[in-house]
Amino acid sequence: MHATFPLLRDTDFPVIRRSTPDTLQVNLGYMCNQTCQHCHVDAGPNRTEMMDARTIDLVVQVLRERQFTTLDMTGGAPEMNVHFRRLVTEARALGVRVIDRCNLTILFEPGHEDLAEFLAAQQVEVTASLPCYSQENVDRQRGDGVFDKSIAGLQKLNALGYGKPGSNLVLSLVYNPQGASLPPPQPGLQADYQRELLAHFGIVFNQLYVLANMPIQRFGSMLISKGTFAGYMTLLKDNFSLHNLKSVMCRTLVSVDWQGYLFDCDFNQMLEMPLHLPSTGSMHLRDLLERDITGAPVTVADHCYGCTAGQGSSCSGALAA
To answer: What is the pTM of this model?
Structure first.
């Protein structure tokens, strides 16, 4: 795989400083039952990096003592971590909002057959990857048969109340473009998803999050192989919006890797660009128990243009209305 960081390191991206953090986004490990083309984590079935029990305990301690309001769990497939359910249960007992970034097909893997029921019982918000409402496009990007399993997963979640009007079980979908282009406007695409999924499969959901593909890891390497990396970076920079700097996720989110080290966002984590204070080096979860990172500078590189181009992009979708 081609290294992308050398092409991103030298940057003219504006300085960003942190606000008070409220979201702890925890990567529970890189193991996944899928291998998607757009994956910025390079996750897959052969990855062995997984967060251990001691670090899970530290996550819970930080949630409790630093009063984070949201735990956002990602991977890989976060549910493949053996401590996943314990972390969910303990975080919910603290009154923390919990988000599971779910690939949907995990709901049918051996040992996870009751996962949907567990998530519903704990009132976990499900943010599910579905890069298109077309079978051809999804299977091309994520593998043969993934679309049918994803639809079955969404129907299973709907049957439990997820996404239904009046329900407190939140179901969000995530869209990524097929290639080196900016995603279309979020409101219009959400209406398309709602119409097509309801008409063909009886599926309902709460909102669609539209995310730009980041020029790092597997997707960035593919761009380099095709000779389109420079063109994609030009596209991102030409569509930079200063307004989006006000609401980029790195202002209030702390990303935690499987070993407990801290980053400004999940993308910086994959590029090994750690969160740090001016007087410190790399920071660990245990440092959050003693240090305040409010006001600290965010570590930036050229990939940050991916979050600020056009309508903007974050883990909660477009930044601009």
So the answer is: 0.93
